[in-house]
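For reproducibility, we list the full input for the zinc ion complex.
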Amino acid sequence: MGLATLRRLVQETLSGALGLLYPPECALCGRPLNDDLPQGPSGFLCEGCQQELGRERLKPPYCVRCGEPLPPSGIDLCRGCALGRVPFERARSYGLYEGRLARLVRLFKYHKEPALAGALSSLLAEVVAREGLEFEGITYVPLGRRRLRERGFNPAERLARALGKLCGKPVFPALRKARETVPQEALSRRERLLNLRGSFAPLGRARCESVLLVDDVYTTGATVRECASVLREAGYERVFVVTVARTPHPRSSPAERGSPEEVEA
Ligand SMILES: [Zn+2]
Ligand SMILES: [Zn+2]
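The corresponding predicted structure, in tokenized form, follows.
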């Protein structure tokens, strides 16, 4: 076999492999994507699905602190934030955990489509820009060792790393799981807090004053609150939180609390 033939074979195999990894079709509706069709975030979505996602974007009024959607009453803090101390400056999400956004998150987390981190992180970048969040570095909610082995990757870390590239900010681990916790989905709000208490530990001292904490879904906020508290104790003065989605009204009914989709760290 000549050198030229060998080179062509290698090229064909490589482009074949890349084609398998990144099939040129919309991740949500399967419509073929081609170059003359305007494509969505990072080329993963067709224009129609991109527009639908845009319509799912959370709009005010929401709590200025935790981002919980509020009825249009002129009050800018939710009850929880008005009553208690919140360890983060602001938590924001792109949209509610429903519709196309929920499907996209599920594809990313449970069907091992880590390449979708590109599409989802561009939604996070949009939230960061829209909210004018200012921070020096980016970190993420860690996974326990067992969960990491089961899943093969940490979705929050993938999102954080992809977002770091988009924002040009350093991404680093700042937390570790100090112990394995029972999955959060079967627990009440209060049990979740108790389950998580002491379950995260800092990785060294703070690297900067302000940090952005990334996670995929904000459910009751128990995980990000606990993480933000540990970050504050480690010396980060300001902690911002951004997630792709948030569960609609997690406190409204006990039935919704047990959403099978949520597997918190
Ligand atoms: Zn589509
Ligand atoms: Zn709030």
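The longest helix spans residues 3-21. Residues 85-257 form a domain with the Rossmann fold fold (CATH 3.40.50). Both points were considered when choosing residues for closer inspection.
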